[in-house]
Automatic annotation (TrEMBL):
Pfam families: Acetyltransf_3. Gene3D superfamilies: 3.40.630.30. InterPro entries: Acyl_CoA_acyltransferase (IPR016181), GNAT_dom (IPR000182). It comes from the Bacteria. It comes from Ramlibacter alkalitolerans. Residues 12-169 form the N-acetyltransferase domain. PANTHER family: ACETYLTRANSFERASE-RELATED, N-ACETYLTRANSFERASE DOMAIN-CONTAINING PROTEIN. This is GNAT family N-acetyltransferase.
């Protein structure tokens, strides 16, 4: 996959993370409000060591994709997918974050649409999933603008910031389901 993606928002592109992003990464990620909407793998406070570790991971993501959200020449957030494994290899966990100073400007929506559109064109995965904490309706709107559908409310599914909360599961199907053969067809094939 080509890793430089333009978006429909002027000044916003998706690109590989680079070592020169270290200071921007620390500045944007080291924010309790950002951390509060992320999984347990996103640290707070966000230190230089955390930035160095992330940049190393992003440099070699394997089947996953990790990109910087670049707005007007600066890394202001991140977006990507974590590839599933085994029987879930066609499903990827979709996620993004954006520095607080950039919220409400359409940047996350533009980034999400650009990455989802590219994933759909290239058919890298059949399904994308994202879970959002119940207290984050802005992130739900970002997903909906990128074509995700609300599929389920997972009651008391996460513990974050001292609270046991619901998460909302969103999905976007890119591939088509294939009906498995019926039992008699399997027996006939086995001969």
């Amino acid at each position: 996959m080509s890793v430089h993606l333009t978006t429909d928002l002027a000044g916003c592109v998706l690109r590989p993370w680079r070592a020169a992003d270290r200071d921007d990464l620390i500045r944007e990620a080291n924010n309790r409000k950002v951390w509060r909407n992320m999984t347990h793998t996103f640290p707070h406070p966000y230190t230089e060591r955390d930035a160095d570790l992330w940049l190393a991971i992003a440099a070699d993501p394997g089947a996953s994709i990790q990109l910087a959200i670049d707005f007007e020449g600066r890394a202001v957030g991140g977006i990507g997918v974590i590839a599933g494994e085994g029987i879930f290899a066609q499903t990827a966990q979709f996620g993004y974050w954006l520095g607080e100073a950039h919220w409400g400007r359409g940047i996350a929506s533009a980034a999400a649409r650009a990455l989802v559109d590219r994933l759909a064109r290239e058919r890298l995965f059949a399904r994308l999933e994202a879970q959002v904490f119940q207290w984050n309706p802005a992130s739900m709107r970002v997903l909906e603008k990128a074509g995700f559908e609300r599929e389920a409310v997972l009651r008391c599914a996460a513990s974050k910031d001292g609270y046991l909360i619901d998460t909302i599961l969103y999905g976007r199907v890119i591939g088509r389901s294939q009906r498995p053969p019926n039992e008699s067809a399997l027996k006939a094939a086995a001969g």
